[in-house]
Amino acid sequence: xxxxxxxxxxxxxxxxxxxxxxxxxxxxxxxxxxxxxxxxxxxxxxxxxxxxxxxxxxxxxxxxxxxxxxxxxxxxxxxxxxxxxxxxxxxxxxxxxxxxxxxxxxxxxxxxxxxxxxxxxxxxxxxxxxxxxxxxxxxxxxxxxxxxxxxxxxxxxxxxxxxxxxxxxxxxxxxxxxxxxxxxxxxxxxxxxxxxxxxxxxxxxxxxxxxxxxxxxxxxxxxxxxxxxxxxxxxxxxxxxxxxxxxxxxxxxxxxxxxxxxxxx
Amino acid sequence: xxxxxxxxxxxxxxxxxxxxxxxxxxxxxxxxxxxxxxxxxxxxxxxxxxxxxxxxxxxxxxxxxxxxxxxxxxxxxxxxxxxxxxxxxxxxxxxxxxxxxxxxxxxxxxxxxxxxxxxxxxxxxxxxxxxxxxxxxxxxxxxxxxxxxxxxxxxxxxxxxxxxxxxxxxxxxxxxxxxxxxxxxxxxxxxxxxxxxxxxxxxxxxxxxxxxxxxxxxxxxxxxxxxxxxxxxxxxxxxxxxxxxxxxxxxxxxxxxxxxxxxxxxxxxxxxxxxxxxxxxxxxxxxxxxxxxxxxxxxxxxxxxxxxxxxxxxxxxxxxxxxxxxxxxxxxxxxxxxxxxxxxxxxxxxxxxxxxxxxxxxxxxxxxxxxxxxxxxxxxxxxxxxxxxxxxxxxxxxxxxxxxxxxxxxxxxxxxxxxxxxxxxxxxxxxxxxxxxxxxxxxxxxxxxxxxxxxxxxxxxxxxxxxxxxxxxxxxxxxxxxxxxxxxxxxxxxxxxxxxxxxxxxxxxxxxxxxxxxxxxxxxxxxxxxxxxxxxxxxxxxxxxxxxxxxxxxxxxxxxxxxxxxxxxxxxxxxxxxxxxxxxxxxxxxxxxxxxxxxxxxxxxxxxxxxxxxxxxxxxxxxxxxxxxxxxxxxxxxxxxxxxx
Lengths: 265, 645
Ligand SMILES: [Cu+2]
Description:
The complex is a heterodimer. In chain A, 57% of the residues lie in helices and 0% in strands. Chain A has helices spanning 18-53, 86-112, 115-141, 150-183, 192-217. Chain B is an all-alpha fold. Chain B is built from 20 helices and no strands. Chain B has helices spanning 30-51, 64-85, 89-96, 102-108, 125-154, 164-185, 189-198, 207-227, 243-246, 250-278, 291-323, 336-370, 377-390, 409-434, 443-466, 468-474, 478-508, 514-541, 555-585, 630-644. In chain B, α2 runs antiparallel to α8 and α7 crosses α17. Chains A and B meet through α1 and α4 of A and α3, α4, α10, α11 and α12 of B. Copper (II) ion (CU) is lined by residues 348, 351, 394, 397-398 of chain B.
């Protein structure tokens, strides 16, 4: 090791220059983001796939389309159930963006050696993140549908559960990094962990944007003539084929697949 | 390596040593892990029992308590086990700002700890490699035992040894146990133990994540075993929907196993990839990087992008089951095709996660035993890259006959048949290297011969299955079962045996007993041909898979398969005996018993904690066997010239 020529500080644990350790850790963070991105994509693909299929006309929440009477919980009320409101998704996403900006700012301050202000900004980020978590919980608990109310409800709830997990990780990371900045472990000469947390939170913000985007753009399914598998509805609850507005008097659904066949027919 | 004197303004604060090196983690090991796991499992199960109203039923009218109770027990187990092994101490220390001192890090790496380090959260990559090796053998032993039971039942039609439900459980558990075993077969032991030394590094990039990946695996597998006592996994390893949502709570064991195992694989992949990209020795350019490193890297990359889909398929299935969502329940708007897509988005790359390291380890050792350079190494690398890219584009060949997007069958048929091109590169490189070599036929090379033979049969039969019209006949038959066993076992497992035999001297300090080892290998090989060769016949005749009752027409081939399976069992036991015997008191190995040129053999055996006292500098390509030494030649020519002049 050319100690005298290379003035880079070394990591206390491995004895390597901190830059070397940092480059390695940054790459690790990027790979972890790839994993989390693919997982998030699995949820988004599921959302879009179910939205496009609208199997058994079960996409939209109950009240209008389908009552999940089979579930054990109380039957959802027929009125007031609908798609989730858009604005909470975007307000929460905005709050995550604020957290993200504060984290980057804190990192910049750390690089400049402004430990006290960096700690304060980090603390502000923690406060915003916790408030976001509360808001996210509030959104979930006030949704006009439950988990058993069709696939839209399922897809939204799983996305929001993912948000909760992401926020918990963010809060853990922010608590740790801010504490470490306060203790002087993250400093001008070794600010990298602060940068990694900022990179991670940037990805989390992107994940929130993706989630808000799909939930607010994919609502009513484009498939208004979905495959029908029937269900276990009592026959009386179904509108009889004769009463439907369809002019077709075809008795067999298989003969005319475009005439919405109902399971009772 | 202390450079505390460097520069005053830029010094990094040195962590203080709190108490003895290692700190809290001194109190944790596998015993505390098991105890805490069992305690939390009991507490969580008890709480579930208290909190869930008795008689409550869920969306499928099934009672809720067994599901929730079993889930709670498994979560308690995993959480308790991971707390008990000390996995949460690292994050906690980071949170509190109590960084590791050098002494702490050495304690964590198991310095001067003796055998105890194998039973702890030890970060040394060599310890993790050995842990993976033993873990692999345990899981494959479990899966192999189940395979014997399956073949016992199938010896004659409806032998009646097991009930249909138990039989299905045997199939499902065997399948997923073997898949897990084969995924870790080479990337675990060889990837962790050998690859860092091979590239001239002191350890993996993230030693603590390395320990975490192994112990997560150790926490996951007992969930699989537990599931056998909770109704079992009755739906094959692919646990298709909606069957899976209607099966007993044992299915939750599968789901938790996969969710935890996916985390383990993900962080192991991150670790291997970062190590390979960032920690190669000075002078180890990409042209000088051994082909095994490429193979492991490719497998890790596929695991990285594909495993989350599998993990989320199981998270969604669990959510359907526990929270009444309807991702895969068509009555309430779900789609079983969604499940199949998510599943096979991993399911197919996973085949290459298994095969790529296996072929790469063969390519790594052929030059050593043929004493000639690897033939067309560029094609080998192109093969790895091609497989990694294409394996993500073929998944729906598992769904030709499900009715999902029939128009997509032909593109997927094309991509599937195209992936045989990069795979062909890899096999041709192997054969080209074998061609006209002077074979030093030791046990590892024998296993390579077995791999090439099996790979050929597996590959050729795969072409029939990739063909949509032919698959209309073959799908769901024993032909498919025989095909994928030729790939995953014939090429995968025999490749792992090659790798274990080759690296055994470096990993254990002893030579693997050639005589016992080769008897075991060839017995298993003969049994393998009998088992799956006759299974091809049964499949061609039309015997469906997953069915324990079959027509008398298939009696002979099934009977032969069963005899073959027992033969495999005997062969594998002999191989295992060779491993155990050689490990305990086999011939002591020198540092480089195969006279290999690559870096990992240049270290002494047993490998010291820091691998290299001075980090090596690489100046040559890895396989220049029998090639004139460029320096010697250069000196000779210059001196010749000098003499002439
Ligand atoms: Cu496949």
